[in-house]
Amino acid sequence: MGFQATPYTVTTALMVAFALFVIYVRMKNWLDSNVPLFFYVILIIYMRSVGGLVPLWLIMAGFGLTMLLRFEFMNQGFARVVAFFTTGTLCLIIYVYLTEVFGDGQAPF
Q1: N or C terminus: which one in the chain shows less Cβ crowding within 10 Å?
Q2: Could you state, in order of their start, the residue ranges of all structural domains in the chain?
Q3: Cα gap 19→90, rounded to integer Å
Q4: First-to-final CA distance of the chain
Q5: What is the DSSP letter of 34?
Q6: Do 101 and 9 form a contact (C-beta atoms < 8 A)?
Q7: Region of residue 77 (left: phi > 0; alpha: psi -120 to 50; beta: else)
Q8: What separation in angstroms does the CA of 101 have from each of 10, 20, 41?
Q9: Is the overall model pTM greater than 0.85, yes or no?
Q10: Is 23 exposed, middle or buried (0-12, 13-18, 19+ CB in 10 A)?
Q11: Each residue's pLDDT tens digit, 61-99
């Protein structure tokens, strides 16, 4: 139930830091930033290469919401709702990552 420094756990902890940076970008309301897109592409590649516990539906939901935020014709209220759900999916991804790193390696759902 503690942190064991293996290459998998350290890389996963770096992905948590990257996800926190993406949340920071979202909180700054930089909707035209490409950083969240890079994060999800790297996340998909990382999860497919190591067989992580983050469900694919959660990754694709976050990626779809991030792509939806890239549209410029949305009004401010709808963009805030989509950004809220995007941040929620990122928080769920961080939770699953932290359960992998600091927990017993079981998927929470």
Answers
A1: N
A2: 7-102
A3: 7
A4: 18
A5: S
A6: yes
A7: alpha
A8: 8, 16, 21
A9: yes
A10: middle
A11: 999 999 998 877 788 888 889 999 999 999 999 999 999
